[in-house]
Amino acid sequence: MEPGGDATLRPPARPPGGGPARACVIGAGSSGITAVKALRERAIPFDCFEASDRIGGNWVLGNPNGMSSAYSTLYINTSRERMEYSDFPMPTSYPDFPRHDQIARYFNDYVDHFGLRERITFDTPVRRVTRRDGLWEVTVEGGERRRYEAVLVANGHHWDPRWPEPPIAGAFAGETIHAHHYKDPSQLRGRRVVVVGMGNSAMDIAVDASYHAASTTLVARRGVHIVPKYVLGKPLDARVHPSRVPFTWGLRLMQPMLRVTVGPMERYGLPRPEHRLGQTHPTVSGRILDRLAHGTITVKPPIEELAGERVRYVDGSEQDADLVVFCTGYKITFPFFEESLLSAPDNCLELYKRVFAPDLPGLAFIGFVQPWGAIMPLAELQSRLVGDQLRGDYALPSRAQMHRDIQRMLRRQRRRYVASKRHTIQVDFANYAIELQDERRAGGERARQARQARGAPGARGAPGARGAPGARGAPGARGARSTGDVHRGAYSPARATLLHRAPGRDPGRGRVGGS
Ligand SMILES: Cc1cc2nc3c(=O)[nH]c(=O)nc-3n(C[C@H](O)[C@H](O)[C@H](O)COP(=O)(O)OP(=O)(O)OC[C@H]3O[C@@H](n4cnc5c(N)ncnc54)[C@H](O)[C@@H]3O)c2cc1C
Ligand SMILES: NC(=O)c1ccc[n+]([C@@H]2O[C@H](COP(=O)([O-])OP(=O)(O)OC[C@H]3O[C@@H](n4cnc5c(N)ncnc54)[C@H](OP(=O)(O)O)[C@@H]3O)[C@@H](O)[C@H]2O)c1
Fold first, then answer.
1. Residues 6 or more apart in contact with residue 167 via CB below 8 angstroms
2. Domains in the chain, number
């Protein structure tokens, strides 16, 4: 949790021939730092502005930026091998599921190992981003404006609390907080606590309350499949993303395994899920089932009304409470954009490959996915795509194609997931990683063809055209096939194996490059 150091606004990064820096990265959380690395490796002049005095974003407990949702009892729920960047393993001394401070340390180590810290301007919130004369004008705190060809938005999507919508009727005499404001079990001690939601925040906070509060009630508006961190002695995400079978097959194998090992949710007093495993973002917790089994947590249906000290539920039951913790998710917001330029109403963010805004050239988003698996390696792949684009080695398809692709993706998403604002940016880790890699090759081919059409020198030298593995015509490649093929989710075990290195590999850290 090292502070970043320099708090003054650096001079703008300039390309060798002068002129404006080409790109601006907003945020130096785990998504922003890997974007910084990708740009630096491609020698693209950029600025990175970070609101806080340190890197790590959400993983810094009590981050001075006020945006972290971490609490003292937070451990990752995606295993460390799933979470680490491709060229910087977490220390083998770390447990499978490290604590928040170990994760924050890892991001600091990444930044220092690759020499990225001096490329980040700390204590500099971006206040406004507008489109002007074909460029992006970025205004930072204090009023200085700079212009860029591209803006990489990496401000995170788990910091702006979503409260119940519509608000719960009535007036409460006790305290209400959102999970974002939960920092430590001392907030729960001796109180009658009601925890609303069935996501991962609700699980952690209900477990904490079950040890520290006078009573704990968990409010579920629907049943979910709660999955433990380990299944048959391995982290769950190593089980559902085995390297040799597609993700959906992994889920199909997982469901009977969970039926045998965990049993039906009703057995724990929880509502029966009305969907299959994999149709919601995973709720991962071994501990909650224990605490339910010990009778330390009571389960209730949705709240109908808050009345003084009483909480009334839709089944007619009621109880006294001192504290209601709403673990009702987060809003995707971009305070620096005019809403008319870009917003994500109900968390809907229509981006090509979850990265590019088709009608706003030069605008890219890093880390705006919600995976079955971890965000970091996906943000790394997204960053390479954008880096390639800025270097001229990747070209987007036409706007019409991008819009068609987005609509296909949205239709698939609606079919796959339970309707909820938490499932608008949901992806399957391996499938999406492969989709990004395929897209990088396809866009590399488009860029090469465009150069060839212009008769530009070096037209044959672009990545994807060099006979590199996976390039068009190379073994196992699908080359520049239509994005529709990518979406049908064809799966290459060989490539998936590359994405998921086997446990027990050489822990030697940090090859520079790799992208
Ligand atoms: C409680 C909790 C637990 C989680 N556990 C996991 C997990 O186990 N595994 C997993 O993969 N994911 C997990 N997540 C998801 C989480 O979003 C990611 O782990 C990760 O933090 C995403 O990184 P990010 O860089 O996109 O966003 P953040 O970590 O939120 O970082 C965003 C950065 O941008 C900066 N910033 C924001 N606005 C501006 C601005 N206007 N100007 C300049 N800088 C700005 C912020 O200061 C911050 O440093 C969890 C989320 C929560 C809330
Ligand atoms: N590492 C960890 O252990 C850990 C801990 C906490 C969070 N996280 C991560 O952080 C992210 C956010 O998680 P989160 O749990 O805060 O949010 P979330 O995943 O969006 O879950 C929100 C929950 O609240 C419910 N909900 C929403 N509005 C409601 C209402 N009005 N009444 C009753 N229930 C309501 C949702 O139900 P519906 O499904 O019906 O919409 C859902 O169960 C996720 O990526 C999660 O994995 C990880």
1. none
2. 2
Question: What pLDDT is recorded for position 257?
Answer: 86
Q: What is the pLDDT of residue 475?
A: 28
Judge if the beta carbon of residue 155 lies within 6 A of ligand 1: yes
Same domain, 149 and 174: no
Question: Bridge partners of 150?
Answer: 23
Six-digit token pair at 460? Answer: 């044959």
- 306 and 340 co-located in one domain: no
SS3 515: coil
CATH number for the domain spanning 176: value is 3.50.50.60
| Sign of the alpha-carbon torsion through 224, 228, 231, 235 | positive
DSSP conformational letter for 315: T
Residue range(s) defining the domain that contains residue 251: 163-328
Is the whole model's pTM more than 0.85, yes or no?
Answer: yes
Q: What does pLDDT average to over the chain?
A: 87
Would you state the pLDDT for residue 484? 25
426 sits in which H/E element = strand 426-428
Q: Evaluate: CB of 126 within 6 angstroms of ligand 1.
A: yes
Let me know: does 202 contact 195? Beta carbons within 8 Å: yes
Does the Cβ of 67 fall within 6 Å of ligand 1?
Answer: yes
Pick the atom of ligand 1 nearest to 335's CA.
Answer: 41
Q: How far is the CA of 63 from the centre of ligand 1 (A)?
A: 11
DSSP 343-378: --GGG----BTTTB-TTSTTEEESS--EEES-SHHH
Instruction: Give the distance between the most distant pair of CA atoms in the chain.
Output: 76
